[in-house]
User: What shape does this take?
Amino acid sequence: MRIVLALPGARPSVMVDIHSNFSEQQVQDLKQTMYLQRCANGLIFSPEKCLVLRDTFLEMGSESIQVEKTLLTDDVLNLVRAGNLEDRVTTWLALLSSSWSHALSTEKAVEPLFYDIVPAAAGTELYVMGGTPRSRSW
Assistant: This one.
């Protein structure tokens, strides 16, 4: 499942993939899509891990997008406990977009999200890929 955060009519500001278990190929696929859509921030969630991806702008291709940090999913989603992983991530992203202080604890473990992800998500709309009424084709 992919969720794209963007201001209406603008390019994506955060791309989020959710997998039961992700492979290196899925990481590379998200990097390539981020590069093609000029999206500088990405997250990949599994039940155990959350990868934080960021465009370093050091290269002229998807190789510029690097895994900046690996966090524990439970640390990131600490304030959203109900539902399956997709429901938790979707709820968390909606909260992050509207009021980050309701989405993130102030624990040191989630500090890497404050620099790029929080500002990129602020005020965005969520577009869930896979045919939901609010989806876009990115």
